[in-house]
Amino acid sequence: MPTNSMSHTHRLFDIVKAIARFIPRLPTFLLANIRLKRARGSDIGSTGLSLQQVAQRYPERTFLKFEGVTYSYAEFNRWVNQLAHAFASQGVGRGDCVALMFENSPEQLACVFAVNKLGATAGMMNYKQRDSVLAHSISIIQPKLFVVGDDCADALASLPNLPNNLLDGVPCLSMESSPSPGWLDLTALAGNMPDSNLAVTETIQLQETCFYVFTSGTTGMPKSAAMTHLRWYKAGIGFGRMALRLRADDVHYCCLPLYHNTALSASLSTVIATASTLALARRFRVSEFWQDIREHGATSFVYIGELCRYLLNQPVAPDDKAHQVRAVLGNGLRAEVWDRFQNRFGIPYIYELYGASEGNIGFVNVFNLKRTVGFSPMRFAVVRFDYEKEQPIVDTRGFMLRVQKGDVGLLLAEISKNTPFDGYTNNQDASSAKVLRGVFKPGDAWFHTGDLVRDQGFRHIAFIDRVGDTFRWKSENVATTQVEAEIQTLQEINEAVVYGVQVPHTEGRAGMVSLSIRQGLEFDPVQFYRNLKDRLPDYAIPLFVRLRQGYHDTTATLKIKKTELKQQGFRIQDGQEPIYVLVNREQGYQPLDAGILERIQDGELRF
Question: Which residues of 271-299 are buried (b: 16+ CB within 10 A; e: fewer)?
Answer without folding.
Answer: bbbbbbbbbbbeebeeeebbebbeebbbb
